[in-house]
Fold:
Amino acid sequence: MYPTLIATVDVVLFTLKDTRLHVGLVQREAEPYKGLWALPGGYVHPQEDTDLEYTAQRILGSKTDTKDVFIEQLGTVSSATRDPRGWSLSVVYYALIPAQNSEKVRLFPVDSLHDLAFDHKDIVAKAADRIRNKSYYSSLPVFLCGDMFTLPQLQSVYETLLGESVDKVTFRRKIMEMDIIEETGIMEPRTNHRPAKLMRVKQGFKNKLALASRNLNCGG
Amino acid sequence: MYPTLIATVDVVLFTLKDTRLHVGLVQREAEPYKGLWALPGGYVHPQEDTDLEYTAQRILGSKTDTKDVFIEQLGTVSSATRDPRGWSLSVVYYALIPAQNSEKVRLFPVDSLHDLAFDHKDIVAKAADRIRNKSYYSSLPVFLCGDMFTLPQLQSVYETLLGESVDKVTFRRKIMEMDIIEETGIMEPRTNHRPAKLMRVKQGFKNKLALASRNLNCGG
DNA sequence: ATAATAGTGTCTGTGAGACAATATGGA
DNA sequence: TCCATATTGTCTCACAGACACTATTAT
Structure:
């Protein structure tokens, strides 16, 4: 009755490591592309999953153990030829998580990626473009930070994603304008200089994106 | 081997009519939701379609006969319950076409839509949000114009989408900065006042989006 | 005190929006 | 000529970025 096509969900898992953007990959255990690195992904479990985002969360949850993960749909890629087994479609989600050790995925820097299984290299590139672009006008980079962070640390995360330095004053103005982070009352420990205030994301924005009224940097 | 789920492609067809944004719908001829209005959609034809955008173009082509249509993926909606027949997924595309008469679809104003089949009313709302938002910073509204149009007409299209008036000078600056339209050399005919220059979209931007360097209107 | 970085105050150039002036076709 | 709208010129205020200054910790 319905056409036979392969439908999967893949997750692009971003995190920071050594001040560089990394993506979490798994090694394929079966054909096709056995042995190659690929995005974590899988099939919908119709009995268990309520929708595709649930599927993506389930796949993500099997690779990390972070709470309040920010996850968003990137889009759906498809073609008659992207999977040697047949006409295939993949609904892609991307997630941002704070730096952590996970034995379930291996982290690779997004900007020097070797060949991956299927069209996953293209997908990673598209997802990286998306999050870099969103960093210009939203709170997205805070999801790469841990529970507590300083404003200079957050600025550094923004700069890593944007690939350029931003003005300190402008940065603070924009961030505080978004009204999504607050002081914890604790100071940054063990510094060799004036310690910064440790901040946290306000309750309610743990996994919700906020938009800036104007761009952080127009890249002009 | 693979889980059974219903995968379809649906197209949100936007056009302007009476200076209001309209969406093209078809009446369902079969159950479920027989008789209700719905987005034009269908299944992938694995033998014929190279990818999902091709599928969307094919569906669109069966409803209109416009060339150089602007079409873009909105996203994929899914859930175990959105289709009474079973776990279903719909990859949604939206297209913008100039005003035209098509007997294949009926046009409805997007802002006063009655109930539609499935979750199509939500999809239309989401798509309308998307194109309205994109109008702030891109050339998207030009795809609602015909082959030739004046700048005041184009401004009116922007204003319809944005739901607010924009400054004439600012508008012209932004549009011309994008460098996507050019003079035809012809003047607007049959006016009761000074005629405007008829413009056209530059070759190469017929169905390609251009981004403005800054927003047209910050909505602040 | 010095070093180093956090955090704040202030100036300036750019550009969006407001408004004014000019141009052009029809009646 | 007048009317109505197109098109262009100019002013001003707000804001982003630059830069300088003050604050706070450890040594």
